[in-house]
Amino acid sequence: MTYMKILLLLMFCTVLPMQAQQMKKLTDLKDFEARLLQEAKNIESIESNFTQIKYLDVFDEKITSKGTFYYKKSNKICMDYAQPMNYLIVINNNQLKIVSDGKKSIMDLHSNKMMNQMQDMLTACMVGDLSNMSPGYALEYFEDAHYYLIQIKPVSKAVKAYINQIQIYLDKKDMSVHKLRLSETATNYTEYEFSDKKFNSLKDEQSLRYASWLLLLFILLSCSHRVTGEATALPPILQAEAQSQKYNLQLDFMKHHFSGMLIVRQMPDNEIRILGSTYFGLSLFDFSLHRDTFIVNSCIEPMRKKKMLKILETDFKNLFLKSEKARIKKKSSTFEQRISGKGFGKTVFTLSGFVNGQAEKVQIKHPLIRLRIQLDKLNINNP
Fold first, then answer.
1. Strand 45-56 relative to strand 61-72: parallel, antiparallel, unpaired?
2. CA dist list (Å): 175 to 45, 67, 99, 168
3. Residue 302 belongs to what domain range?
4. Do 259 and 283 contact (CB within 8 A), yes or no?
5. Separation between Cα atoms, residue 280 and residue 282, nearest integer Å
6. Please, what's the b/e burial string for 84-101 (b: 16 or more CB within 10 A of its CB; e: otherwise)?
7. Most exposed: 15, 109, 163, 222, by fewest CB within 10 Å?
8. Residue 157 carries which DSSP code?
9. Taking 60 as the threshold, does the pLDDT of residue 93 lie above it?
10. Same domain, yes or no, for 203 and 277?
11. Does any domain span residue 149?
């Protein structure tokens, strides 16, 4: 199973930095579960705004995303991201659909044992029935005057590799999810806060039709277009700076599509730190470039293959360091094409969208291994 599939499910069950130590242990668990189940029975649909905050401890920086959340009973969910870019996720029963940059991906949520566990968690969170939670998670319950807290810790080593713990805060007024927090480590986390909630406002089948319409609209509106060598040392394609630079990241390998955000910063010791993260907050990789040395700080298992890491090392060196092996194939006032390597190691870099001499769009293609990476600069400032 791909790491991306796990992330897409976990995003719906994640959020807030209140400490359980500040809340008291819940003593009447049966009453809590009965009320949660009763309130859930009265909910046919939910529509709300959400704010997502991803905290990166290495940069001491928060990245904010915003959008609209839709839920319809029987596991119909839509997450419509509006900031920092348009990104759509739809769950309809056992199918998950993602639309980003004009590309639609469809995944089966019941493809294996771990996915079934995640599906159990998702169902428990949304319909209020915690009795069906997988035994792969340990649950603790707390409360204060305003909220209940369900603290979930994975038991499975496979899930522990990605998730430290999950916290779900329920509003005591209506038992709805108020905030969620997913902690990858003790210091890296993603938070969601839901506001302006509307209950039972979506008419029958309206949410599913809306989701289908959004999928079509995203595909129509966000489809991207594409745009004799010089042998000399070429300057970096992208310039790492002391302030974080953020790029929309699209990665296609064979039949698989991944999307998220690339965050790059030049550290005080001239190290270039390169982080890849999904838009819903979980890390894909964390690399460092120090002079000509490439360091893998962390990387998800599907990408942590020797050959794949070597390809990524070469690509990121071409992006952020001077290159004596690449050459300019074509160049005009609006785009530039560079070629590096040959045979299976051949890489084509296409630069466009120049602003003040810097490319804001970069496409990296490995023709013979069917690997494509697309980077589009995001001009956003986060608090």
1. antiparallel
2. 14, 22, 31, 11
3. 230-378
4. no
5. 6
6. bbbbbbbbbeeebbbbbb
7. 222
8. H
9. yes
10. no
11. yes
Average pLDDT over residues 173-195: 86
| Gap between the Cα atoms of 89 and 105, Å rounded | 10
- Residues 202 and 259 grouped into a single domain: no
Asked if 40 and 101 sit in the same domain, the reply is: yes
- Are the C-beta atoms of 144 and 24 separated by less than 8 Å? yes
* Average confidence (pLDDT) over 106-113: 60
Phi-psi region of 6 (alpha: psi -120 to 50; beta: other; left: phi over 0): alpha
Task: Identify whether residues 46 and 65 lie together within a single domain.
Answer: yes
Residue 245 lies in a domain: yes
Contact assessment for residue 339 and residue 348, using Cβ atoms and an 8 Å cutoff: yes
> Quick one: tokens of 161?
């590799």
What is d(CA 150, CA 164) in angstroms, rounded to the nearest whole number?
A: 14
Q: Show which of 192, 221, 250 is a domain's final residue.
A: 221
The token pair that represents 291 in the structure block: 């002079």
DSSP 72: E
Q: Any residues with CB less than 8 A from the CB of 368 and at least 6 apart, and which?
A: 343, 344, 346
**pTM for this predicted structure:** 0.67
Cα-to-chain-centroid distance, residue 75: 21
Whole-angstrom distance, CA of residue 234 vs CA of residue 237? 8
Question: Is residue 383, in this structure, part of any structural domain at all?
Answer: no
Distance CA 374, CA 363 (A): 5
Claim to verify: residue 82 and residue 14 sit in the same structural domain: yes
The answer to whether residue 290 is domain-embedded is: yes
Residue 299, domain CATH: 2.50.20
Do 313 and 272 share a structural domain?
yes
Count of the separate structural domains present in the chain: 2
**How high is the pLDDT of residue 365?**
93
pLDDT in tens, 224-274: 333 344 446 789 999 999 999 999 998 887 766 778 899 999 998 899 999
**In 210-357, beta strands by DSSP E:** 230-231, 245-253, 256-266, 272-277, 283-290, 293-299, 327-331, 335-340, 347-355
Most confident of 179-183, 230-234, 372-376: 372-376
CATH of residue 142's domain is: 2.50.20.10
Whether residues 202 and 307 fall in one domain: no
Separation between Cα atoms, residue 359 and residue 373, nearest integer Å: 15
Q: Are residues 208 and 283 in the same domain?
A: no
Cβ(330)–Cβ(337) below 8 Å: yes
Query: Over the chain, what is the mean pLDDT?
Result: 78
